[in-house]
Each structure stands twice: as structure tokens, then as C-alpha cells.
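TA notes. Do not distribute before section.
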Amino acid sequence: MRIITAKEMRMLEQESVNCGVSLDKLMDNAGNALSSFIINLNKGRKIVFLAGRGNNGGDCYVAANELVYNGFDVTVINICGEPDTPLAINAFSKLPTERINIISGYKSEKVKKALEMAEIDFMSHEKSNELEKLKQLEAERIKTVSDAIKNADIVVDGVFGTGFHGELDGELAYFFSLAEDKTTIAVDTPSGGNCTSGAVSDGTFKADYTLTFGFVKTGMMQYPLKKHCGDIICCDIGIPEEALKVIDCNLKINTTEKSYISSLLKKREPDTHKGDFGKLLVIAGSEKMRGACIMAVNAALRCGTGLVCAASTESTINSISIRNPEALLLPMEYDYDGFMLYDSNISELEKELETASAVLIGCGLGVTNDTYAIVSKIVEKAKCPVIIDADGINCIARDINILQMKKTDIILTPHPKEMSRLIGADVSSVQSDRIKTALDFAKRYDVTVILKGAGTVIADSGSCLINTTGNSGMSKGGSGDVLAGMIASFAAQGYCVSDAAAMGVYLHGLAGDITAEKYGYEAMLPTDMINELSSSFRCLNEA
């Protein structure tokens, strides 16, 4: 499913006009979609619309007009001021004022100035009567708005929509908080949320349902905004097909869908052999972090690689030989602290690299001068796809110019903290716009970036995918090692890096969802997810 930015939506609306569909018609369609949804929702008859000054408020006026003639008790609160766009003014003028309760729920500029002057006068001359009268009027206004919200069955947020940026006014955030025990609906995007980046202001409206028009917006698929959206319903408002040409030249951002991932999965012919499914070299683990390598190898085998060779330290190799006797084993020399050495191992690794169809490096590797040198050499020498995870990424972060030496496709799988090290920024900066962060890095270094987390972002220089599977139970150490092994497995089998990344991320989340149903979020483990990969493939093959 394609998702778009707020800017692209504005381009589509304007192009719709050029194609013969007026903005008035688009607004009527949006408002009617909203009213139909409320009617079918059957959650009560008392509706309060919190209407902004722009076209988002206009959508509310159209819906209010429709609902009042369907027997609903409708209140419209102009929460920020009177409508000030031609479309919103026109829609507001059509409201049957004798049937709808209309509240001016905002502090006017006149009152603001009067309060300021009265406070100055009070401070200077101790004349408090005017100030007290104004405060009383303000208290009455706030009570009127508050009571309307408290008495509603359904509260509809049509304040800002896709145009919001910055921080919410404290009073508006307070009004939003009063609606939290009601059935809540956001029009296009919950007010207070950035529908392009997914960032939110304090006090952002919390919706049970978000009706978004034309297309889902990119930020709605990212946290924290997604958490405020509730169920997302995308409504067709009549944007003509030919209008899409205006955004065709833009980078397309899509969500992962079961049907799409299923279409990527290659059919296994009956006359194939292990050589047809690639050889993966896994350079991972250390004496203190054996599990990372073990889980990556196990996951890779479960995803269908013909041969998996594990290059690791002695105790890790011994554990793999017991747990996964299917794996090839390449013992590595290690230092006093249990981390791989460069000089005594690199010739063996380069020899193994020659026959590999993909390489995974980094899981539990540790960050030392020797592991840094190993990562650098693999990036420099590899001619097959290289998947860099965990400490491999941390080694890269020591000298980002390592990526300039690559001769092949690179996939990086950072979590937000690792991403912050790569770009030299704090985690909050990464999380404030995950899509842009991943895309910018992917374009700059011509790599594929998998920025992990809720709504994992898969970005390369020409495309971007947002994952739709997975859950909070996967937030445990080892989940990333499983994911890295899965992606590397698909790359080793000959899938292009973009497909390998998409398949690995989607199936990883799907395995997590199946595991959560079986064990619950708290009790599930990454190793349980590996055991549910067979169920994940069966589910995918049913698409």
C-alpha cells in the first residue's frame, strides 16, 4: 500500500482541480465519508466536533450538516477561531444554526488584548474589577467547552489535520484530554501529530479511529503518532486516477503487505539441491556473546539457505555443533577477552569469503581494534552481499568511510541507538523522523538501511518500505540477531538485497505475531520466534 506525505497530498488535491474535481467536491466527499462512518459506528447520538479554522474544520461542518438530519444531537465547537479558508467559510455558512449547537470555544484576540491591558492596569493602579470580569468570562467559556465535551458520546477532532507542526497550545491539550473516555475520531490525522514524520506534541489528540482521506500519510505508520491514531481507515474522496501522475516522479513509500511479500517468495523446484540455495558465511559471536551467533545461524538455516558456515570462537562453535549440526564450522582464534583476532584469522575468512553467496557480520562480535579490522576487510573484499548488524555497525561507526570501500551491496540493520552512532546525532533526533533518517543515510552511502523498531523502515537510494508486522513482545535481546540471520539467508539464496530485506523484516514480524499468540508478549523469546518460522512460511504461502 502506498503512503504519502502531507506535501504530496496537497499536490494531489491541486492536481485533482486541474483534472476537473473541485476542492469543494473533495471536501463534500470527505465530510460525507466522516458522517457515514459515524452513523455506521453506532456509538451514541451526541456528537461534538472540535473544528479548526481551516479545511479540516470544513470537513467537520459538512459531516455535522449531514448528521443533524439523521437524528444526531450535534454540537460544533470552533475551537481555534472562526473558519478562515474559503472552503471552510462556505461549509460553515450552510450549517442549520437552529438545529446545531455552535460554540465559540476560543479566546478572541480582543479578549487576549483586554486581559493583557487589565493585568497591566491592575499591576499599576490596583484596579481589579475589569480583570475579574474578563477572567469570569474566560472561566465560563472554558466551562461551556468542557461541559460539551464531557456530555458527548463521540468527540471528533477536526482541528489541524495534516497541516500541524510545532507544539500544541496548553488549553487545547486540556480540551483534548477531556475526551479520552469518549469514543474519539480524528479527521485525517490526530491534531498535534506530524503526519509526515510521526512526531507528536505533548497533549496530542488520542483517537480510537482516524479517518484519513485519499491515502494514509507516512507519519501515521510511525510511532509515536501511530499510537494516537487507533484504527486507521482510509477513505476514497474522489481523487481522479490521472491526478496521481503529479507524484509519480517522487520516491514511493509503501507498506509491506502479505500479498506482496508472498509474491517475492520463489517456488522451490523438485530437482534442486543445496547448491541452488546459496552459502552464507556468518562472522559473529565471541566468548561472552555466543547466543547472538547461534540465533543468527539457526534463523538462517530455518529460512532455507543451502549451506551456512559459522566463523566464531571455540565455545560458540561447540554450542552450534550441538544445536545446529547442519552448520559448517570455522573456529576462530581469539584474544584474552574472548574476541576474534585479525592477523591469525583473516586469511581463513578471505578464503571462505570466495565461496560465499552472502556474508553476515557483527552479531555479538564485540568492538575491538581486531574486530574493526575484520569488518573493514570484509567490506573491502566482499563481492557478494554483506549484511552488517550490531557490533559490525558499531565498528563502522568508528570510521564511516569504511563504506566507501565497498564493491558490493551492503545492508545495515541498526536499532535507533546504533543509527545515532552512524550519523553522529542523538536517539531523539533519529526517532523524530525515522523515514527521513533512514532514507538520507541510504542515499548518501548507497546502501540499504533497515532502521529497526516499531514500524521498521527499509530504505535504499530509490525506495522505502514501512513494515506492518511485529509487536512489543519482540523487544528482547536476540530479536535483532534472528532478523539479521533471516535477511542474510534470503540474500544468500539469491534474492536482491531490497527483496531480502523486505522478506526478512516482514517474516520476522510475522513470526513474532504468531509467537505472541502462542506465548504472550511477556513470555515469548527470540528463540521461540525461530521455532515459529515454519508457521510463518505456511501463512505466507496461503496468501
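Switch to the second chain here.
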Amino acid sequence: MCHIEINGRVAKAKVGETLLEVLRREGVSVPTLCNVEGLNPTGACRMCVVEVEGRGNLVPSCAFPVSDGMKIRTHSAKAVQARKTIVELLLSSHPDDCNYCARNGNCELQNLAAELGVRQRRYLGKHKKMKVDVANPSLVRDPEKCILCGRCVRVCEEIQNVGAIDFIGRGSDSTVGTAFNEGLNVSSCINCGQCSLVCPTGALVEKRSIEDVMTALADPKKYVVVQHAPSVSVTLAEEFGVRPGTDIDPQMVAALRRLGFDRVFDTSFSADLTIMEEATELVTRLTGGGVLPMMTSCSPGWIKFVEQYYPNMIPNLSTCKSPQQMLGAIIKSFFAKREGLNPKDIVSVSIMPCTAKKFEAGRSEMIVDDVPDVDFVLTTRELAQLIKMHGIDIENLPGETADNPFGERSSAGKLFGGSGGVMEAAIRTAYFMVTGEEMDDLKIPALRTSKGRKEAKMKVGELELGVAVVSGLANARKLLDEIVEEQRTDIHFIEVMTCPGGCVSGGGQPINLSSETVKARQKVLYKLDQQEVLRTSHQNPAVARLYKEFLGKPNGEKPHRLLHTTYVERTNVLK
């Protein structure tokens, strides 16, 4: 340990820490643009510069190590003026269309300009005329709004190991783009949207479906139903200024009804349905010599990653559709028949934490006889905007519950919202299927850490089950390479979530990626699981009724036709 002085106040620090780490711990706010929590600093943007006594130049706090006796001034006139000049230079060539930008009111560049008192244009830069890339089904890329902070490049490469975007060009012609500067739709992009979460401006945003949904709601000939994913209710409140880790499920359901949806269903119900199919598939593979390790299939970014980079492991993927697609298929079949509706007259909308769900809904495998399982996908951010557009005071709405027959869920289905949740839910049901008994303790502590990779061994009857849970595709790549190169046979079941931490930090969630926020979101899911009585998918009475009245047995002929799918090898990743 050492001691440093921050703005005249003595603070403790660890040798080797960066100044920025110490400043944040001490409650001193210094702005950054290029810094990404958890990744090595680059010091490229210089927004975090501070004054260090004895040094002639300002130093970037994100990349400068502390040393004993150091004296720092974080907001000296020299440091503040440097930051202000950086913002002015960035604004000199930035588009002046804030009122029309998706990030208006939640733009870091806009906020920094206000914070630093930038109220007039001192520099005139040349505006680059570049096309907006709208071809991707999940994301829109506007290169004119890019400030070259590099966050998206680093997240795509270092956290997701995809590398769909990078710096291209030189000098003043530098920009962030794809290989050959083609559209994102023909790049190696997996549609995860992590780039849009870290982008400080509107250069990368989700592709909007709000107008499509509003048109459907206004059409009296359409029967519009909506489903909401497990993690959405524990993150939506943040868009209305409520602290992270607050569950507003009852108020959200009430808001969805006030928006005009004819039925409001809970995707956690179909998460339970997914577990019934997936656990059955796992037990069948374990006992019948099937392809192992079996890998989960509910994360569409992960599926595309396997199709592109590990096509030889496609047989390892579970054939189960994701909960979103399962519920969509059941709505357009069982529900349509029961209600006497033409499936083509039903508009099925889903509220998801994930931009890749937009891509998934449009996959050809998810469209039967020109009828898609899901018609439109809204992100959590889009739902918040829709609620605000309609003047709904969600915080003060009396709570309501989701509609039957797809409104009942177990807490196991709710756990799908975080990394490790699918695995816990599946093990609970697989254990019952094998032994005929419930687990003594449904909680599996080894799978509840915040690590990006977790492994555990457990006994399921006479079976020795090795499981692994990973989130973030860089972690997934390392695990798959181990399995292939080291021929590991001790792992039988793998859960992969595309986004670090799982769906609670998906690409469509509120833009707040601090590790503490992600932990708070995850914690509330575990709290719900602990409090509820119905904690296993196989005990969900609504799921049992669906099998009895319509589906038959798990993994039977009808479930395979409606609830399972196939995948395609994408040998050319630029396709």
C-alpha cells in the first residue's frame, strides 16, 4: 500500500493501480471516453487527464500508475481546459442532429459538452459524408457519429472474439468499419449489440421496431400479443431513474396492457418449456450415447458464432429453439386454434434484452408457411421509449399479472436472465427425470459467481455430470478450443450466454455496464428464486397442461416439429 494526495486529501492506494481506479474508489469523478471496465487501458482519448505535481504534462489517469507520495489535482484549470478542448474538437466535425438521434439525452458526448460548459462552436471541422448502414437486422451503424473512441472495436475483439469491426484508413481519414468497409450484414457480426452498449454516441444503435409495433396495435384486424423475457423486468426500471436491481414485473405487465396489447405473456413460461425439452434431450444423450458435450441454444449470438467459427460442433448444440421462439410457435399454433384465430392475423411481439433476438426472429428456420414464430422484437430500451411516448407513469401503476395460458412460471424459468441460470434450471429438472426425486438443495453455489467461466461436477443418480457455464464469447472460444484440442471428455453440458453476465447485460438493455449494476440485476433474480414456492420447471402446472392437451411427451413428434430447429454452417463468415 502507498499514500497519495488527491485534491489536497490523503488516500490509500495499491502499488500498480491506475490513478483512475483510485479516483473512482475515492468518489472522484473523472470523465473517460475510451476506457472500458475490465480491459487494459489505452489512454487514447485523453479525456481523463489530470495534473500530477512535478510533471510538466497532464497524464491520462486511466493508464498512469500510482506511486507513493504522488500529489494529484483532478479538476485544475489546466486539466478542465484540456478536456473542454477535446470535446470542442470532437464536436467540430460531429453531426448537429441531436434532436433526431437515438441517443439524445443519453449521449456521453452531449453530457460532457454540458458538464464542461461548451456552449459555442470555436472550431469548424470538415463533416464527412458517409452512408448509414441499415442492412443488419439488429443494428444500425452511423459512421458520421463515430468519435473513434475504439470501445466497440475492443469489445468486439477482446470480449466477444469476433472482430467484426476495426479501425480502417489512416490519419484524418480513419474511421471504424468492417472488412472492405461493407455492411454489418455481410461481416462476421453476430448481432449481439455489445458494441451499442459501449458506444458513447449514436454511431451504433439497435434497429428500431417501435413504429412497426405501433402500426400493429392501431390495426383493428390484428390480434397483437406480447411476451417479455425473464431479465427485462429487473432492468426496465433503470430507464425511469430507479436504482439497478429493482424488479417491476407487475407494473410492466400493467403498462403493456395500457399500450393496447391484447394478451401479455411471460417468456419465463416458455423458459420452463425449454427446460422440459432441453433436460429431456440431455438425459437422452447421456444415457443413449448421443453427441456430448451438449451445448445450450437459447442465445442467438452464440448460435451464429458456432455456425461461423465451429461448424463441426453444430451437432453438439441442443436442437431446442430459444424460449422466445418456442412461445412464438405455441402462440401461432395451440393458442391460435384455441382462440379461433388465423395465425396470419396474430402479431407476435417480444420484449427482449438482446439485439440478436431481432436476427433470430428473422431466421428462415423460424418461419413456417410464411408465418414467423415472432413478428417483431423490441429491446428493453425500446419498450421504455414506447412507454414514455404514451405518457404512462409506470412507477405508480397498480401491479397486474400476465395472462394465461402462458403466464405461469417457475423461478427456474426466471433464472434464465443471468449467466448460470439455464444450467441451474436444467439440472433441477434433469435430476428429477433421472432419479424421480427433487434435489436436496436447488441452489448450486458454484454456478452463481460473477466469473465469466465456471465449472462444476455433480452426481445425478448414477451419472457423473460435468458442467461448464461461460458468458462472453472470448470465454466460450477458450473452452471450445480446450475441448477440441485437449479432447476433454469430463464436460457433458455447457451453458453459453453471448453477453458477459448473461441476458441482464444484453445488447438491448439500459446503457449501464458497470460490474456493480450487472451484479445488482443478477442478485434480484436470485432473490426471486429464493422467495418463491414454485422453483422447478417440471412442476409448472401450466406447462404440464400444455403437454397433456397439445404437445404430448417432451421430445415427441409434435414438440420436435414446433419447438426444435436446425442450424446452418456458415463457412464464409462474410455471409
